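Hello Y.,

Per our agreement to keep a running log of every chain we model this quarter, I'm adding this entry. I've kept the format consistent with earlier entries: sequence first, then predicted structure.
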Amino acid sequence: MATPEHPEDAAETGGQMTFFEHLVELRKRLINSLYAVGIGTMVGIYFSKYFVGWINRPILKALADAHLDPKLIYTHPAGGLNLVITVGVYLGIALASPIVLYQVWLFVAPALYKHERGAITGFLFSTVFLFLAGIAFGYFITIPYVMHFLVSPSPLFNLGHDVVPMISVNEYFDLILLTLLIIGLTFELPVLIFFLSLFGIVTPKFLWKNFRYAILVIAIASAVAAPPDALSMLIFMVPMVVLYFISIGVSAMVVRKKERQLAAAAEAR
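Predicted structure for the entry above:
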């Protein structure tokens, strides 16, 4: 229903399709998405060897810096083939994601008002941007530090010269994928706070009042995730703290908009 705040919506109608038409439309969008993922996977398999070389750079550099043989191994006869297919599937999903998101948009857009379409577009853009920013931070900042710490001689786990790492490329890829996924999701904190604020679970006042505890939690998480030195811990902490204060700003915008809508509704009555 249109509100006084969005009079342009009065001329629009919601979804007018029948239930059967919705199912047909959903089937069409799912098929288009599967086609996109399939084509993306074929392209991904073709380029997977280049991607594997790119993703291996941090560990190869860490091994070279530790004066170890900068090579990875696989321990199963089909290990190389499995890696190529796995990387190709992930690349295919990544390459197809814009088309998949567009298909989702085509499915839901007819049922939305004009201002709701703009809000959803901004939400999708922010979500993708933050996730990619987290992956970039993880690959260029986090992974090199972690790999250097893990393969370099350390008093914590120095097993002597008779014990050297022989790292499986499959296990390394699984570790990198999991690490980048966690960091990418961590960068979605402002989106999480957006929804929590939208449903009234948190407020900017609550977030600001408890920021000291948030900093403490971030510091503990950084100490656990980062190699045990002050610089590495600081590198981990800074983006998390910045994201937390951005989240406070996001929460403030959501709360102010809700207050304006309530005031407009009260005046209309």
